[in-house]
Write a structure and sequence with these properties.
Elements (H helix, E strand, L loop, with lengths): L4 E2 L2 E2 L1 H14 L3 H18 L2 H6 L4 H10 L10 H20 L10 H17 L4 H12 L3 H9 L3 H28 L26 H21 L3 H21 L2 H17 L3 H16 L1 H10 L2 H10 L1 H14 L13 H5 L11 H34 L3 H20 L9 H21 L7
Antiparallel strand pairs: 1-2
Amino acid sequence: MEKYLIKGKLNPLVLLAALGGILAVFQSGKMLLAALLMLIPILILILEPARCLYLAMAYSFIDFLLRKLGPVAFLSGIWDELFFIFILTAVLIKYIYHGEFRYRITNLDIPIALFVSISLFLLLYNSPEMRIGIEGFRVIIQYIFWYFATVNVLKHKRHVKGLIMSLLVVVSFMALHGIYQYVIGVEIPSTWVDQAEIGVRTRVFSILTSPNILGSLMVLCAPIGLGFAYGEKAWFKKAIYLLCSLAMLLCLVFTFSRGAWISFAGAIVVFGLLRDRRIIAAFAIAGVLVFIFVPSVANRLLYMLSPTYIASSTRGGRIGRWDKAIQIIKNYPLLGMGFGRFGGAVAARYEIAGTFYVDNFYLKTAVETGIIGIVSFLGLLISALRQGLRSIWMVQDKLLQDIGIGVFSGLIGVIAHNAVENVFEVPMMSTLFWILVAALVSMRYVEIPEQTKM
């Protein structure tokens, strides 16, 4: 029996296996829902809230299963909100059980509160249609609250390391799946490749719905694998982490997402500046070799600089859409058009006249919220990076510091990718982004005693 326990507690893997058995046995959606509702309080009582949070690292896998399993497909649009409530309930029950509650105040609380307050003002003051405004507001604000849940759940170094390791494992398997898709030449929609391009036979997407978002996920996690490799002392473990990073890099290449490639280059420069500048040179050499010996990669990059692409992009692609967005900003400079009214999934869902995907989250936000909104949002991102960098320099644990450098570099990559893609509109990416921000900030709190922190 001991092998199923971790220090007297039921192994989470056993619980996941039990959940898989339930999914296999129950045929009725109502019966399955009842079984899940019965399992939730058991999970809350047995697991630490931090261990429950590990499941969020499998966001993409859970979302994929719910979309594919008929009996529970109705949960695919709300499961993440239910899971967030579940985490808060687990925290509340644990603290009531232990007879104490201590909210962890961080230096990022005020910037978040300021941004949420400004956004709420813009929602109430400048929403021509409130239901559209609320949905657009939710796209930006909802996932930020994962920060507060995470930073108050991670109480020990093992929690931070375990959380980030969980993400690394999940994304490594997705990377291998992406490589497999490239090998077999998975079929893709014709719109994913410009008809004028040559040499691109497929673009991988794993269990997601977009190669660009898969590329963004690789950009986020490949530097984390490098961080683990640098910090780990055992050569065998170093090799495993390097192989994970290599799989993610290959998958990133096979997404043929130019925006993700460029964003990863930025992430590696940051990683090199913070940890080891030699890695910048190593990746630069590797990039040149790939450009020379992999024609499909070279063609995709060179096509981006060709007159054909520039004309096509200006006529109906990114360049043309960005120019239109800038023109709209000039018409609504201070407060914008209102949440959910331009450039993204909400505007498309409600068929707002004249809207289109702008493929730049910052331009989208500027059009919807004006100068006030975009400045406050960029200020929040800068504050998050500043606090994350401060945590890296404060921790003494070498492995934790290297992991932090990897996380920080990955976050930089995602922020950069949003300049050419609406990455923050994807619930999975926003959730993982703010959970990792919280994990990075938490590093200083889990290592340094509460009473010694400023």
